[in-house]
Amino acid sequence: MIADYIIKNAKIFTADKKQPMAAALAVKDGKFVYVGDEAGLSAYEGDVADLGGKFIMPGILDTHVHVTTSIGFEYADLGVRFECDGKQGALDFMADYIAKNPGLMRYRFMLEQKYLNGETLTKEELDFICPDSELIILEGECHSVWVNSKILAAREITDATPDPVPELSYYVRKDGHITGNAFEGAAWPFLFDLDVLTDEQIVEPLLRFIDYCVKTGVSAVFDAGFPEYEKFHERVYKLLRKMDEQGKLPIYIDGCYMLTNPAKKNEALEELKRFNREFNTEHLKVHTLKILMDGTQKIHTAAMVTPYEDTGKSGATCFDAKGLADVLKSLNDMGMDLHIHTVGERSSRTVLDGVELARKELGEKYRIKVTCAHLEIQDDADMDRFAKLGVIANFTPYWHAGDPRILSPLLGKKRASKMFRCKTLWDSGALVTWSSDNVAYSDFVTWSPYLGMEVGMTRQIT
Ligand SMILES: [Zn+2]
Fold first, then answer.
1. How far is the CA of 339 from the centre of ligand 1 (A)?
2. pLDDT of residue 403
3. What per-residue confidence (pLDDT) applies to 141?
4. Burial of residue 309, with CB atoms counted within 10 A of its CB: 0-12 exposed, 13-18 middle, 19 or more buried
5. Residue 205 has what pLDDT?
6. What is the pLDDT of residues 434-460, one digit of tens each?
7. What is the pLDDT of residue 304?
8. Whole-number pLDDT of residue 184
9. Secondary structure element (H or E) that encloses residue 238, with its range
């Protein structure tokens, strides 16, 4: 047979358990027609490249990154990062900064909640130190914010504004009044001003990202969406589609449409259909709904089976099992898939319960691929259910060096030492995947799949 090209004298990792390594391969019409030892090449004719022992492996798939959110962070003003000892220290620091930098339209700071020593900040306190300008403080993980009255008024958020998802995406209230502290889906809209960006400003970091992927051997990524910025997310996809049509998108981007508020379920399903139709070039496709099922452990928005030790609360999920089963049935009819942010124990349990219900009802018609992402912590009772129910377990190994001391006050020592159990799930027969979950391009250090693999295997970061 005449092959388009032939490679010999290489160390080829095939990812095939039966034959993990090979020395030679032949390709015809874009497909491997031979992978094996050099003796087997005698059946093929064509140009032969001698690789002199170089290593070849399949292209890497980064199965959860944020291509569009990273554009947001590329231009975001994350504010002045500071540490303090309690609330008064925070107010003093910010008042001092404002006094030294008077007359700005907006002041932005970044503060980890732990530095408030269990206290919180209110809009009245922020108004007192900043009555005439906008003041926003991003929590360290950007999953919650504190804002003053100026910002709430500009966005017409009042005591009557409903919470998108009570106990998950919500405005903190005291005696029925909003305090200026907002979590998850209620906080995200405060973070970015994206309308001012030009197409050139969006394309430039995209080209850097594509270049990085090509250089590191990442051939495909799943884009896990941009919460609360659907319009901008679509604008980036339009630019990516154009780049693909111009031959400037050499990697595959598997996109999504994101849902954060159950009240918008029907709208999201319709939008997903439209995205599926509109973004369908060779390297850009959309066939997945992304749901933020819960939040993060550090700020107690991850949903738990066993309550948090320090607050006694358990967090909340975006859907209950029945609600999720309904989403799954709709997606199954549409021929689409589901990728779902699940950090806490109850979040993944609710997905597993929902899949169980949907499978029961759909029987042999069930064809949907469901992926739970992050999986920081699971209840023991759920460990064998991923394999049984065919739910893909997607971990973020770069986080797996996690210091159990940070979460011990929230989870208790024992639970905090039993996180990121991808090996246990792997041994149960579940399909386990790894990804970077990056949200900012920056210098791409944390995007490295090789660094992720190393931390995932060693549980150490140096
Ligand atoms: Zn993510």
1. 10
2. 77
3. 83
4. middle
5. 97
6. 999 999 998 999 999 999 999 999 999
7. 97
8. 87
9. helix 230-245
Q: What is the pLDDT of residue 404?
A: 76
Q: Are 397 and 456 in contact (CB under 8 A)?
A: yes
CA distance 121 to 141: 17
Question: Which residues are within 8 A (CB) of 197 and not within 5 positions of it... i.e. 6 or more apart?
Answer: 71, 75
Domain that holds residue 22: 5-58
- Interacting residues of 313 by C-beta distance below 8 A, sequence separation 6+: 167, 300, 307
CATH number at residue 39: 2.30.40.10
Query: Residue 69 Cα, ligand 1 centroid: separation in angstroms?
Result: 9
Rounded mean pLDDT for each run of 10 residues along the chain, 462 residues in total = 94 93 95 95 94 95 97 93 95 97 95 92 96 95 92 94 90 95 90 93 97 96 96 98 98 97 96 98 98 93 96 95 98 98 98 98 97 97 98 96 85 92 97 96 93 95 82
What is the CA(341)–ligand 1 centre distance, in A?
Answer: 7
Q: Can you tell me the distance from the alpha carbon of 231 to that of 164, in angstroms, rounded to the nearest whole number? A: 18
C-alpha 405/C-alpha 425 separation (Å) is: 24
Number of domains in the chain: 3
With vertex at residue 293, the alpha carbon angle to CA 291 and CA 296, rounded to the nearest 5 degrees, is: 120
Same domain, 353 and 227: yes
67 φ, ψ to 5°?
A: -65, -45
User: Which of 125, 143, 144 lies closest to 135, judged by CA?
Assistant: 125
Question: Are 115 and 131 in the same domain?
Answer: yes
**Distance from residue 65's CA to the centre of ligand 1 (Å):** 6
Distance 76 CA to ligand 1 centre (A): 17
The end-to-end CA distance of the chain, in Å, is 51
Q: Which residues contact 384 (CB under 8 A, 6 or more apart)?
A: 428
Neighbours of ion ligand 1 (CB under 5 A): 224, 437
Helix (H) or strand (E) holding 217: none
The encoded tokens of residue 344 equal 């806490």
pLDDT of residue 37: 95
Distances in Å between the Cα of 165 and the Cα atoms of 225, 240, 264, 267 are: 19, 32, 11, 16
Are 50 and 169 members of one domain?
A: no
CA of residue 375 to ligand 1 center, whole Å: 12
What separation in Å is there between the alpha carbon of 80 and the centre of ligand 1? Answer: 24
Question: Residue 142: what pLDDT?
Answer: 85
- Same domain for 128 and 268: no
Which pLDDT belongs to residue 405?
A: 77
